[in-house]
Specification:
alpha/beta; Aspartate Aminotransferase, domain 1; Aspartate Aminotransferase, domain 2; 2 domains; 7-stranded mixed sheet; 14 strands; binds pyridoxal-5'-phosphate
Length: 452
C-alpha cells in the first residue's frame, strides 16, 4: 500500500518559532514546570489539545464571510441547524459557545442531589457539571478499557453487565440519564461499538432512562466502526453516524472537535419540553436561541465542518496519522496505549519513567522532558490531573499515569509527526536521567478540574 497522504493542499501558513534547548530550560522553569503556563509562541509542536486547534478549510473561511449576524432568525442558524439535524436526526438544536455550556444547561435541568449519571467515562467538564448540580457521576468502562497495553477493537465500550447492576442498586428513578462518550476521550480516545450503543440503549429503554451521547468525536467513532465492526465495512460513515444517533434521546457536542471549528457547541434533543426549558436557560447564560453564544460566522463554519468531517479520505488520513505515530513509538519499545485512539497518542508514563514514584508525577516529568528536549507540548493525564488527597493529605493516585499527545485536525504534516517520534524516542533512550516533581503551590478548585 502507498503512503496515505494529507488530503489537502496548504493555502495559508503560520510560522513556527524555533528556540534552543537552553532557552526552553529557562522557559520551563519560568512556567513552574507547568506546560499550560508556557506561551504558545515558545512551543514548536503544540499537542496540548485537539480542541479548537483545528485548521479550517478554504470553504469554511468563505463561509465565515457569509455569516449573517442578525440577532434573531439568521440564515446561518438555519444552515447550522440543518447540518446538525442531518447527522443527529434530532428535532431541537440549541447552539452554545462550547461543549461545557451545553453540559451546564443540561445538568442544571436534570441533575441535582440524590441523582446518578452513568457513563462509559465522563469527560472532566461533564463530571464537574454533574457534581456541581449535586449529582454523582459513575464511570463503567469495559474491562479492556482499563489496560493500556492490551489491544482490543472497542476499548471505549460500557460494561453492560455492571450497568444493569448499578441501575438495580441506585434505582432507575434516580438515574436521569445514561451518557455514552464517543470516542471515549478520558479513556484514550477509544471507540464504542454500534453493538454496545445498541445494547446500552436497550437496557435504558427497559428502565425508561434516556440515553444521551457526548458526541464530540462522533465522526472518528463512526470511522472506527466502519474499520472494525462486522457488517459496517461497506457502509458510509455518515450513515453509521446517523445510526448511532438513532439510539439516543439527546446529544451534547463540542464543535471544537469533530466540527473542525475553533469554537462552538450544541445541545441536540428529541424532547420538546426539555428543549423549551433548555432554551430558557440558554437565554440567560448564552444568548438568543438562534445564535446561543456564537457569531453567525461561527455557525457557518460549524455547518461546513460537519460536512467535511465525515469525508472518508479525511478520516482515513486522520486515523492513520495517529496510528502511524503509535506504531513508530511501539516499534522503538516506547510504552504506548494500543491500539491507537482517534485523536491522540497516549504514553504510559508509569512504564516509561519507572524510576519515578507516582507521588512525584512521572507523567508531568515526561511532559517537561518532551518540552525541554524538543519543544513539544503534551498534557499529563494521571495523578496531577485526577489525583486526590486523603484526610492526612497523602496523594490518592490516579489509576493510570498517561501523557497525551493530542493531534490538532489538519494542522501538522507527516514530517512534524516524524519529528515528534524522534524526540520521544530520544527521551526514552535517556529516560534514567529525568527526575520527578513535587507540587509547591496549587489552587483550590473542583477535584475534577485541576488542569482546565
Ligand atoms: C472537549 C470535550 C467536552 C467539553 O467541550 P468544550 O468545548 O471543551 O467545553 C466534553 N466532552 C468531551 C468528550 C470532550 O472531549
Amino acid at each position: 500500500m502507498k503512503t496515505i497522504i494529507e488530503p489537502f493542499r496548504i493555502k495559508s501558513v503560520e510560522p513556527i518559532y524555533f528556540n534552543t534547548k537552553e532557552e526552553r530550560t529557562k522557559i520551563l522553569k519560568k512556567a513552574h514546570y507547568n506546560p499550560f503556563l508556557i506561551d504558545s509562541n515558545d512551543v514548536l509542536i503544540d499537542l496540548l489539545t485537539d480542541s479548537g486547534t483545528n485548521a479550517m478549510s478554504s470553504r469554511q473561511w468563505a463561509g465565515m464571510m457569509n455569516g449573517d449576524e442578525s440577532y434573531a432568525g439568521s440564515p446561518s442558524y438555519y444552515r447550522f441547524k440543518d447540518a446538525v439535524q442531518n447527522i443527529t436526526g434530532m428535532e431541537f438544536i440549541i447552539p452554545t459557545h462550547q461543549g461545557r455550556a451545553s453540559e451546564k444547561i443540561l445538568f442544571s435541568l436534570v441533575g441535582g442531589k440524590g441523582k446518578y449519571f452513568i457513563s462509559n467515562t465522563l469527560f472532566d467538564t461533564t463530571r464537574a457539571n454533574i457534581e456541581f448540580s449535586g449529582a454523582e457521576g459513575i464511570d463503567l468502562v469495559c474491562e479492556e478499557g482499563k489496560h493500556p497495553a492490551v489491544p482490543a477493537p472497542f476499548k471505549g465500550n460500557m460494561d453492560t453487565v455492571v450497568l444493569k447492576k448499578v441501575i438495580k442498586e441506585k434505582g432507575a428513578e434516580n438515574i436521569p440519564m445514561v451518557i455514552i462518550t464517543i470516542t471515549n476521550n478520558s479513556g484514550g480516545g477509544q471507540p464504542v461499538s454500534m453493538k454496545n450503543i445498541r445494547e446500552v440503549s436497550k437496557i435504558c429503554k427497559q428502565h425508561k432512562i434516556p440515553l444521551f451521547i457526548d458526541c464530540c468525536r462522533f465522526a472518528e467513532n463512526a470511522y472506527f466502526i466502519k474499520l472494525r465492526e462486522k457488517g459496517y465495512g461497506k457502509k458510509q460513515v455518515i450513515d453509521i453516524a446517523r445510526e448511532m444517533f438513532t439510539y439516543a434521546d439527546g446529544a451534547t457536542m463540542s464543535a471544537k472537535k469533530d466540527a473542525i471549528a475553533n469554537i462552538g457547541g450544541f445541545l441536540a434533543l428529541r424532547s420538546k419540553l426539555l428543549a423549551q426549558e433548555a432554551r430558557n436557560l440558554l437565554i440567560i447564560t448564552e444568548g438568543f436561541p438562534t445564535y446561543g453564544g456564537l457569531a453567525g460566522r461561527d455557525l457557518e463554519a460549524i455547518a461546513i465542518g460537519l460536512e467535511e468531517v465525515v469525508d472518508e479520505s479525511y478520516l482515513q488520513y486522520r486515523i492513520r496519522s495517529i496510528e502511524y505515530l503509535t506504531e513508530k513509538l511501539h516499534n522503538a519499545g516506547v510504552p504506548v496505549m494500543r491500539p491507537a485512539g482517534g485523536h491522540a497518542v497516549y504514553l504510559d508514563a508509569k512504564e516509561f519513567l519507572k524510576h519515578i514514584p507516582v507521588d512525584q508525577y512521572p507523567g508531568q516529568a515526561m511532559c517537561c522532558a518532551l518540552y525541554e528536549e524538543g519543544g513539544i507540548r503534551a498534557v499529563e493525564i494521571g495523578s496531577l490531573m485526577f489525583g486526590k488527597y486523603d484526610e492526612k493529605g497523602k496523594l490518592i493516585p490516579s489509576k493510570l499515569e498517561l501523557v497525551r499527545l493530542a493531534i490538532p485536525r489538519r494542522v501538522y504534516t507527516q514530517s512534524h509527526i516524524d519529528y515528534v517520534a524522534e524526540v520521544i524516542i530520544e527521551v526514552f533512550k535517556n529516560r534514567k536521567k529525568y527526575k520527578g516533581l513535587v507540587i509547591t503551590e496549587e489552587a483550590k478548585l473542583f477535584d475534577t478540574l485541576r488542569q482546565n
